[in-house]
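Run log, item B.
One chain of 315 residues. Sequence copied directly from the ordering sheet:
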Amino acid sequence: MKKALICGISGQDGSYLAKLLLEKGYIVCGTSRDAQVSSFRNLLRLGIREKVKYESLVPTDFRSVLQVISKVEPDEIYNLAGQTSVGLSFEQPVETLESIATGTLNFLEAIRFIGAPIKFYNAGSSECFGDIGDRPADENTPFRPRSPYAVAKSTAFWQVANYREAYNIFACSGILFNHESPLRPTRFVTQKIVAAAVAIAKGSQEKLRLGNISVKRDWGWAPEYVEAMYLMLQQDQPDDYVIATGKSYSLQEFVIEAFHSVGLNWQDYVITDNSLLRPTDLAVSKGNPNKAKEKLGWQAQYKMPDVVRMMVEAF
């Protein structure tokens, strides 16, 4: 039986990935900064909390990373840990850089130190591309990060590429575009929108306050995106892949879809709030997933309207 170590297992992607790997017969071990007190709510929601083993691990502490990897002896490591919010990264830039870049470096260095044939997946991000207009980004598109989060993810990406080339480590980065699910916390704007629409439909008098709703994003379905992570580590050679649907929609279209799903006109309930605007933001984000289709056999089945509908139905 293969053994997988998922760092950041309590988040959206970690939970869906754990479910997928368990279904494939893996022994799954997940980490948290303090596994003894973590609730692992998402794993509980998916009905798999008792099927996973847990270890306490601090990604920014090399000794902690080395000890856990040595103890678990995984065949595959999925690094999904670190600060996950673009907006929050402007308020906590140091924590963001350390948790993402230093954390990733510690995993890579521990794998090199141990010398075992461990396959490593790193969670990259489409935010690294920055503003590239209407052109879909692929694996050869240069990075121009426009947030502390994107800077940190770009750093981690190049660390992975360096260790792959310098030390022949099987290390991959998945450059994932936006992907959503009912497991998203409400600090993410997509879940904030869905939660407000459902609450208003049930009689709440609240208004939904949003920043720039003209931004366009390539939104996919998270349970599909974790399949791509798994497939990357099943290849003969390590490589990096853009994972996306290939179609972008504006945040306004997301809002319209959410309120339409509950039978309401969004314009009656949405207020633009300039205090929610970011110092810098991406006008358009769209990915070209052709390489993933050709080499991994992966293709997104769900687009934004499907994602919104499934998120609303889950409430």
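Observations after the first pass:
- The mean pLDDT is 95.
- Residues 93-114 form the longest helix (22 residues).
Flagged for discussion on Thursday.
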